[in-house]
Each structure stands twice: as structure tokens, then as C-alpha cells.
Amino acid sequence: MTIMRPKIELLTNEYKEKIFHEAKTILQIQGVVIENSEARDLLQEEGVENEGPRYFIPDDLIEKLRVYAPSEIKLFDREGKEVIQLTQDNIHFDPGSAAIFIQDLNSGVIREALSSDYIKFSRIVDHLPYLEAHSTAIVYTDVPNDAQDWHRLYLALLNCSKPIITGTFRTESFAIMRDLLELTRTSSDKLVEKPLAIFDACPSPPLMWSNLTTQSVIDAARSGIPSEFVSMPLAGSTAPITLVGCVTQHTAESLAGLVIAQLAKKNSPIIWGGSPAVFDMKNGTTPMGAIETMMINIADVQMGKFLKLPTHAYMTLSDSKVPDAQAGFEGGMGALLAGLAGTNMISGPGMLDFESTQSLEKLIIDNEIAGMVKRLIQGIVSYDEPFAQNILKDYDPSVSLLSHPTTLQLFKKELYLPFNVDNYQIINRETRDQWKTSGETSARQRAREIAVKLSERPVREPIDDNLRKELDNIANNHLK
Amino acid sequence: MVLIMDSIYEEMAASVVELDMEKAKSLAQKALDEQLPLLEAIEKGFGEGIKRVGNLWDAGEFFLPELMRGAQVMQEAVDIITPHLEEGSRARETKGKVVMATIEGDIHTIGKTIVATMLKANGFEVIDLGADVKAEDIIAEAVKHRADLIGVSALLTTTMIGQKKIIELLEQQGIRDKFKVILGGAPVTSKWVEECKADGYAENAVAAVTKAKQLLGLS
Fold it and tell me: Is B65 an 8 Å CB contact of chain A?
């Protein structure tokens, strides 16, 4: 039995109530700009008043609809196995998305990505034990512009069996992506029964839902596909500088998404996600590794839990340009805090440079961090009482407790064993002499070796030949 | 008299550095009421202030909120004075006309807005076309306003290509030499500027002002 679940909280119940109340007031008084005509129709049918594109969503409509949003979403891998439960304080990791560059594994140069990079990336993600989900993490340039969203989902399905976090860049792409998913599950009903992908939808701060993202929410709701809201207030530029103000804005924007999704179809699965950030007051950039960014995320997750919704955050990211010490400590702090907050889906591994660059080396280092975080949140377990007395009775100085039955039985449970690939592991615990003999490598160098080795391994579950052909057909038809 | 003037100019400069909007506006009004030499008030007073703001930024003491506010204070004070400048002085006061936009497909405007505000504060006339603007429309506006400078920002590598299109269209229309073109945005590098055959880019808003002045032969 776990003695207690380690946790971090930054908001008290009193303040969650206050934030929720103010967010609803904002939606009612200041309103939210809705660009999408279908969503406008849905709101008008409910008698929601508007001034031009600005809709004033009343408190009672939010209260009426929020009970429909499910508090648990399960995700199933390509083969139909249940692998993720987005609920309570469960945590899961997926690669940060979507990068427009990749750090070349050989040269270290940051460059535009190609589809071959994404294939390799997907095959590596397939092997990383602490990333339960994949994502369409990299935008590559060797497909036409209008294929840049759906094509990633196609390659993800071919090369990795894990559930996928994805999204559209064009409204037209949703249908193609839904086809790919339904084909994989064999029918739309089966896709609803066993969700395989989540669609991200990002409102534009402050208080606006663009045509594209709103359409994605509506289309996903009607197809029974989970939507993940990624509200991204920017403290001090497109949101109040106060962290609490940012959380309030995030709550208002996300509640507007909830209303749209549940109006489109009741009981639509939605995830209370976000990618807030503070605004760097020197460079005008959006640091994902800033401690205050992480604090806003934690509070946003708490608000999601307060509303009994599955949660998500962009954490485990770094703003460093290379997988260096900054990347390690920002990524590590983010993952740890996200885990302690009980964030159901944590997107970020691999990501550098303000969500712009994916690095395989960082991805593999972050997998290790995720493993350690998962161990931490399992907490300290009480197996038996007395805790030590009986074991100590058996202590024999000549053999110590190394082969004691409890040690043998529990060491793999009690200890997090670093991920090992052909004797390479990120965490080095060798003696100095051993480390010298094995090449005096840094964590980054070992990450590179592991990336190369994993990319050469066959995927765990190769895709069925017929399914591959059918997916190829869809892709080829749309590439014409 | 010169000494008194100097101390008023110093107060004007200080009002900008201290980000004191009310003080700056009342000093601008004072310049009108007391019939001070208006162009000097702008150049030696408020203009000196914004120059100091730039220096404080370069020294790492000022941050973006202070830069933005300083530029706004400068702008509001100057706006009080400008209508009262003589025709000739008004032309002298304008450093040049800039048409700015974030390129088609891109909605990221924060960087462009900061640069536009700084350019205005430094005496440029800025026509800000906003976000998601077609290359054709940017050029049409530049022609219409007889701009000296076109500034185009892009945050996404997928939209950056629109920056190149600006130059190509200017060349096609045979009016490339009528405008200087500066590019901005996180993914923009000197290499990209070279590839586009644009005239320059800057790493931040203060550097953008320096670059604009340099391109128009003002520094």
C-alpha cells in the first residue's frame, strides 16, 4: 500500500472556486470571440447573445453542459490494447509537439525536418517505455503544404503502435485523419469505443476561438474523438502578468471550448490541457522552461481536476538550443512538477527552443526522467509491518541483505532501474574507472548511441500488411 | 533663456525615461502654450528621452514593458505637438515612412507590434497592416503610401516563404529600388535575408530602429 501519493498544489479550494467563478463572469460579461459559423449557430440555438463575433456565454449554460464532459478517457494502441487512462492523478508522457526543426543526430545541426526523420523518430518512440503515447511531433517539409498535418498521423500509425496526440492545420484535413483512424479500427463505432488519437485545439489568447480550432473541436466531438484544449495565455502580453490572472484566463478559454464541444455532441470526451507561458521581457520569447510557466501549468491542471476533467500540460520542455545542462534541468523540473501535479498527459519530451525543435537525444534523456518521475509518484510503499525489524533479524555480515528473500522479491519494484539499451544507459552509475574504460561519455553522447541503436531495432508490433496497404491508399489518394 | 530651455528639454527627456505619461503630455502642452521651438522640443526633449530608453535597453536595465511604455509616452507627447508644427518642420520631423505587416498565414504579431511602436517613437511614420497580410497587399499599400521601407515579419518557417515573395513581386513590378525591405521574426537569419535579397533584419526592436535609420541614410 502506498503511504501517500506525492503531490504539489498551488491553489486552495477557496481560490479554485474564485477562479472558476471569475472565469464564468468573464465569459458572460466580456464574452469570447467565436470565428466559426457552426459554433455560432450552436450558441445562437441556445439563445446565447452576441455582439458581432463576440458571444456572451451565460453561467447557467456552462453549468448545464459541464456535467456531460466525461471524467475519464481511455486510450488504446493501434492493436486495440488499453494503454492509457486519463483520469484522477494518473500520469502519461508523449513527445512535445509540433517542432518545425529537428536536431540532426549526426551533425548536431538544427535543420528543417524530412519525413524520414519523423519515421525514425516514431520508431524510436515505439521503444521508449516511459512514453505511453506518440505525437505528431515534427512538421516535415517534403510533403505538400496541405498534407503537413494528416501525413504525420499516417506515418505515426505506420511506424509506432502507441496512441497518438495530433491536430489539424486545415479544416479539410480532419476528414482525412478521421478516415485513417477509422480504417485502423475498422469502423467509426470501434474508434469511439477504443480511442486511438487525441486532437489538440488551441484557442487564441485572449478569449478567442479561431475558425480552424473550433471546427476541429466540433468535428472531433461529432466523431467521438477526444479533443485536447491547448489554451496558451502569455503572461504579460496576451494575458495578465499575474499568474493567477493567467490561470483565470485559461479557465475561461477552456470553458468556452467545453461549451462548444458539448453543444456539438453531449458527452464528448475533452481534455483540460494547456500551453501557457510567461513572456520573456528581454527577448520577447515564450519560455517553456521558466519556473512561472510551470507554475501556471500546475494551477491549470488543478483547475481541470476541480472540474473533474482529464488534464494535460506542455511540460518537460526546455528553451535551450541544444541538449545541454539547461535542457536537462528545465526538462527534469518540468516533468517532475507535472508528475507531482498528477497531469494525465504530459507533452514535452524531446522539445527544445520554445516548442520549435525536436531532439532525439533529449527525447531519450526525457524518457529516463519520465521513468524516475513515475517511480516518485508511486511513493513509499508499506508492504508489511514491522517495516524493518524482521529483515534486520536476518542480517548476516558475510552476505549482507543482498540476497535476502525480500531484497530478491522487491528490488525491481522498489528501485527504478535505468532504461538499458545494449548496455548503454542515460544515467551513469559506474565507478570512475569503469566510466573511463567505457569511453568517458556524457549523457548526451550515450543518448545519441541509444537513439542509433533503437532506430535500428524492428518496431515492437509491426503493422498488419493489409492495414498498411489501405492506409497507403488513403495517403496516395490525397497526395495526388 | 538657453539654460531654461535646456532644463525643459531635460524634463521632457526624463519624462520619457521615467515612463511618466502625464508629465510628458503636460510638458508637450507647455511647449505649445509657451510657444517653444516645437521641433527642438521633439528632438532635444522627447527624442533624447527615447534615445536614452534605447540605451537603457542595450545596457540590460530596461525590459520590454519599459521599452513599450517609453515609446508610447514619447508617441503621445509628440502627437500633441505634431499638428502644430509648420509644414516644413513636419516633413523634417518624419524620418521616413514604413509599411509593416505580418505575412499571410501568420498571426504572430507581438514582435512586429513592438518594432512598429519603437519605429514610431523614433520618428518614423508607421502604417501597420496587422497580421495575415498577403504579399500583394503589402506592396500595394507601400506603393499607395509611398513608403521608404517595408517591414515583414514571420514566425513560422512555413510562412517565411512569403517574405521572399515580397522581393520577387517587387522585382517583377520593376519597383524593387523604390523600397528598402527589412525582415523580422524568430526564424529569420542573416542567411535568409541574403537568400531573399532583402535589405536587412535586426535581432530586436532597438536594433531594428538602428537598422532602419542606417538603411535610409539617417545615421
Answer: yes
Q: Is B218 helix (H, G, I), strand (E, B) or coil?
A: coil
In this structure, what C-alpha cell is assigned to residue A189? Answer: 463505432
In a domain, residue A397? The reply is: no
List the one residue out of A37, A27, A71 whose CA is nearest residue A259.
A27
Confirm if B49 and B15 have CB atoms less than 8 A apart: yes
Helix segments in A186-319, DSSP class H: 188-193, 211-223, 243-264, 291-306
- What is the pLDDT of chain A when averaged over all its residues? 97
B7 interfaces chain A, CB cutoff of 8 Å: no
Topology of the domain comprising B2-91: 1.10.1240
Structural domain boundaries enclosing A99: 1-382+416-480
**Structural domain boundaries in chain B:** 2-91, 95-215
Which chain B positions have a beta carbon within 8 Å of A236's beta carbon? 65
Confidence at B91, pLDDT banded by 50, 70, 90:
low
Residues of A in contact with B114 (CB under 8 A): 284
The stretch A74-78 carries a mean pLDDT of 98
Interface test with A, best of B109, B110, B156, B159 (most A CBs within 10 A): B110
What values do phi and psi take at A9, rounded to 5? -140, 140
Domain B95-215, CATH among 3.20.170.30, 3.30.40.10, 3.30.1330.30, 3.40.50.280: 3.40.50.280
Q: Which residue of B has its CA nearest to A139?
A: B158
Share of chain B above pLDDT 90, in %: 66
Question: What CA–CA distance (Å, rounded) separates B206 from B209?
Answer: 5
| A255 φ, ψ (degrees, to nearest 5) | -65, -35
Whether the ω angle into residue A129 lies within 30 degrees of 0, i.e. cis, is no
Measured between CB atoms, which of B65, B107, B186 is closest to A281? B65
- SS3 of residue A358 by DSSP: strand
pLDDT (0 to 100) of residue A232: 94
Q: What's A330's domain CATH number?
A: 3.20.20.480
What ipTM was estimated for this complex? 0.83
Domain count, chain A: 1
Q: Helix, strand, or coil here: A112?
A: strand
Determine, yes or no, domain membership for A442: yes
| Total residues found in chain A within this entry | 480
Alpha-carbon span A174 to A185, nearest angstrom = 16
The answer to whether the Cβ–Cβ distance between B110 and A282 falls below 8 Å is: no
